[in-house]
Amino acid sequence: MTQATLTGVEDRYPTRLGHAISPVPRTEPTVWGDALDGPLSRAELDGFADRGYLIKAGTVGDDHLPLLQRELEWLGAELAADDPRAVREPGGGIRSVFAPHLLSDLIAEVVRLDTVLPIARQLLGGDVYIHQARINMMPGFTGSGFYWHSDFETWHAEDGMPEIRAVSCSIALTENYPYNGSLMLVPGSHRTFYPCVGATPENNYETSLVSQDIGVPDRDTLVKAVDRHGIDQFVGPAGSALWFDANLLHGSGSNITPLPRSNVFLVFNSVHNPLTEPFCGARRRPEYLAARDPVTTLAL
Ligand code: 6CS
Ligand code: FE
Which of 177, 221, 260, 273 could be cross-linked to 217 through a Cys-Cys bond (beta carbons 3.0 to 4.6 Å apart)? Predict the structure, then answer.
């Protein structure tokens, strides 16, 4: 019996299985709002629906960037060495800082910028809240990558997110070059859910945030997806933003250059898509990974 039937919530996207099953066509729309509902044009919305991502230059301007870059250093120093919200790279340095919007007023401000929140509301068709936020530092020399995955696969299995009605906004705080660990995307892959084989270990997030072994598509799936869709890359100056659908396959290589690729990721979830119980049957993940608190999940 799966967790879903225990809670009575239908699991339309089974994953973390004992055996491989066929990919599941997405049933939800990718874009829930319309051109009149926000700043994105019809063409931009159609592009997002087709490719599963959209790049917007100038999302954060020079008025915020230098302050945000300084904020990164402060956040890195502020968190105690044993704070679980600061995930470290095996080779040294900080890999990610989770829930930075709750630690920094400046990052909380970025969430509500006219170039950010209205786009999230338009894509998700109404009120939203922050499901998860993080800064991925991808430090120079030691930044280890993120293997191919769909964020929704994790958020569904381990956080109980029922529908694909969430979107990530990755804002470059440093220049994202083709060679310093910038995000690679499989355009169009968001229209298919790829069930993964392998049960979720207890407290999986204690290792998966550094190296994700469970909940990743097998190589045959990746060969077929890349063969069909190709690979695009998010490169651009500090201040530009990549909006990508929760189910879009993405990953990044390691960064052996001296140039950090530090991005802040804001994950917006629709208020109509509140978390239930983890569909993989594991215990709930901590609040800093998956917001459930009535205050932090208040509509923005
Ligand atoms: O487990 C998670 O929620 C995180 N893992 C990855 C690889 N991307 C999304 C998210 O930060
Ligand atoms: Fe991810």
Answer: 221
CATH number assigned to the domain comprising residue 41: 2.60.120.620
- Å from CA of 298 to ligand 2 middle: 24
Q: Is 225 exposed, middle or buried (0-12, 13-18, 19+ CB in 10 A)?
A: buried
Are 192 and 164 in contact by the 8 Å Cβ rule? The answer is no
Contacts for 147 with CB less than 8 Å, ≥ 6 apart: 211, 212, 216, 251
For the CA of 155, the nearest ligand: 1
Best mutation site among 208, 210, 213, 292 for ligand 1 pocket (most ligand atoms within 8 Å of CB): 208
Ligand closest to 265 (CA) is 1
Does residue 296 lie in a domain region?
no
- For residue 158, the ligand closest to its alpha carbon is 1
Tell me which of 154, 156, 170 to substitute to probe ligand 1's pocket, judged by most ligand atoms within 8 Å of the beta carbon: 154
Could you tell me the distance, in angstroms and rounded to a whole number, from the CA of residue 126 to the centre of ligand 1? Answer: 24
Q: Rounded to two decimals, what is the model's pTM?
A: 0.96
Q: Whose CA is nearest to atom 6 of ligand 1?
A: 151
Separation of first and last alpha carbons in the chain: 37
Q: Note the helical H segments in the chain.
A: 3-7, 42-51, 65-78, 105-111, 117-124, 151-159, 205-208, 219-229
- Residue 195, H or E segment: none
Q: pLDDT of 51-100, one tens digit each?
A: 999 999 999 999 999 999 999 989 988 898 899 999 999 988 899 999 99
Domain residues for the domain of 209 are 32-252+272-289
Structurally, the chain folds into a number of domains equal to 1
Distance (angstroms) between ligand 2 centre and the Cα of 15 equals 17
- Whether 10 is covered by a domain: the verdict is no
